[in-house]
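Late entry, evening session. Most of the bench is empty. Finally got around to the prediction I had been postponing all week. Sequence below, unchanged from the version circulated by S.P.
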Amino acid sequence: MVKKLLHTRYRVVDLEKTVSFYREVLGLAEVDRKVSPRGSTLVFLKAPESEELVEICEYPASGPVVIGPDVTHLAFSVDDIATFAAHSAAKGYPLSDGPTPTSSGSIIAFIDAPEGYEIEIIQRPR
């Protein structure tokens, strides 16, 4: 049986643009960068209060990156969704949906990462 989630991988074409988005827009820290034994370039990023990592992978030998609609997304918590929305819009990434209040009292919104992966932003009730 597995014990815990370590990381989630997203393969991209433009590694530096995507890593810049995760660092500058979302505020994740780059914690490791390496080339795998099969030749892919891997960058690992971490949210300030998380243990799990996001792995961004550039591996041209795998062929084109095809992102299906509504297949996967990452979700991150924020203290204030309006503040985050203003910040992300100023960086060139406006919300693509929301903010939307939920029945639990949370507020959710979405933005699109550079290559089309969807990112959910959640403000939990205070």
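Two things to note before I forget:
The chain has one domain: 7-59+72-123.
Helices lie at 15-25, 81-90.
Will write this up properly tomorrow.
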